[in-house]
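Here's my example:
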Amino acid sequence: MADLNRQDLIKAMVAEVDGLTVRMAGASLEAMITCITEALAEHKSISINNFGKFGVRTRRSRLGIHPQTQTEIQIPATIVPYFTPSVGLKQLVNQQINPPINPPHIKQHEPNSDISR
């Protein structure tokens, strides 16, 4: 299976939820990405049950070698984002044979009649 990009995710969302339009799926995806990005920028963590946890970590400063001059340089401390998958997601990814068609941790959604098209 090929890697997915933003448009592929939007198409998958539309196929998964009855009544969801491409525009609504795109707006939902953008809102989710914005919320996660803003929380990480504020050094907050985000936990999503049965999916995983997003957060930030501080990498300590360290000595390194400059690749061109071969001299020692001080590499400054940095803050980097990370993702830790949930146990259920790890199990789903590591299944070798016959993965379930509808994984047990993903709930099937009923069409919402209140969604405007």
